[in-house]
Specification:
153 residues, Alpha-D-Glucose-1,6-Bisphosphate, Chain A, domain 4, 7-stranded antiparallel sheet, 27% helix
Length: 153
């Protein structure tokens, strides 16, 4: 399953990218975020691996992030792997003008076990909605310093 979302952020690209590239900011725009642990390579550079934990409702999700490309301020590509799911995420940041940035996110999901294949087939919109919700939450954090860190999942 592959799809794309686009959102306009009312900030200059350099500010957007600075906030996006900060691991410390993940808790402010990714609901359920618990922790980020760098495992190997140069942090946030090509081939770096990290371990990320989330708590979404009663469900704990542990995943491995691998950086495929860090060509910021233009692009940042990663993969996320967790039980039953492989996700490739391509992020592009385009300058609209001095005060606006276009964030293009291309998501590709591959399901690697039967349960996730069924969920992915029957409920693809769950993944699409979650991807877009993270983008909206990032926009709210970047523009207005609104954090999801204290919200219930």
């Amino acid at each position: 399953m592959k799809y794309q979302h686009i959102i306009i952020i009312d900030l200059p690209r350099n500010e957007v990218v600075e906030k996006f590239n900060s691991v410390d900011n993940l808790r402010h725009w990714q609901k359920g975020f618990i922790s980020f642990e760098h495992l190997e390579g140069t942090p946030r550079k090509m081939n770096a691996k990290s371990y990320i934990k989330y708590q979404l409702g009663n469900r704990k999700i542990d995943m491995t992030e691998t950086v495929l490309k860090n060509d910021l301020p233009d692009a940042f590509h990663v993969t996320y792997e967790t039980e039953g799911v492989f996700n490739r995420q391509e992020n592009y940041f385009e300058i609209i003008d001095d005060y606006h940035t276009k964030w293009i996110a291309i998501s590709e999901f591959k399901f690697t076990n039967l349960i996730m294949k069924i969920i992915g087939t029957l409920m693809p919109n769950v993944f699409k909605k979650q991807s877009y919700a993270y983008m909206v939450d990032f926009k709210n954090f970047a523009e207005n310093d609104i954090s999801v860190a204290n919200e219930k999942n």
